[in-house]
């Protein structure tokens, strides 16, 4: 699984990148056919200004989840939780065919 992390208008520190990679490493347990994950980190002008957009690319369908929170870590955890549920649904749908 290829992981690409992009931060817009700021430099993400290695601690944040390591945190994201560690969390994403668990996703193949829920759906083995993930080819790559694109993560985009950005800042918003409002109170919960840390925005995370994750795009999971796999054969047949791409999943996109976007969340924002007070910290990037919270937004990443929220995205991963949603992606886990979506990947399980995709896997079950594929198995039922």
Can you count the helices? Answer: 2
Query: Helix share of residues?
Result: 25-40%
CATH architecture: 2-Layer Sandwich
Would you report the number of β strands? 4
- Low-pLDDT residue intervals, each spanning 5 or more residues: none
Strand order of the main beta sheet, please?
A: 1-2-3-4
In total, the number of domains comes to 1
Q: Structural class of the secondary structure composition?
A: alpha+beta
CATH class: Alpha Beta
Shape: elongated
CATH superfamily: Ribosome hibernation promotion factor-like
Kindly estimate the percentage of residues that lie in beta strands according to DSSP: 25-35%
Distance between the termini: 25 Å
User: Could you tell me the mean pLDDT?
Assistant: 92
Looking at the structure, the CATH topology is Double Stranded RNA Binding Domain
Order of helices and strands: EHEEEH
Radius of gyration: 14 Å
Largest sheet: 4 strands, mixed
Key structural traits:
alpha+beta, 4 strands, 2 helices, 37% helix, Double Stranded RNA Binding Domain, 97 residues, RHF/RaiA, 33% strand, Ribosome hibernation promotion factor, four-stranded mixed β-sheet
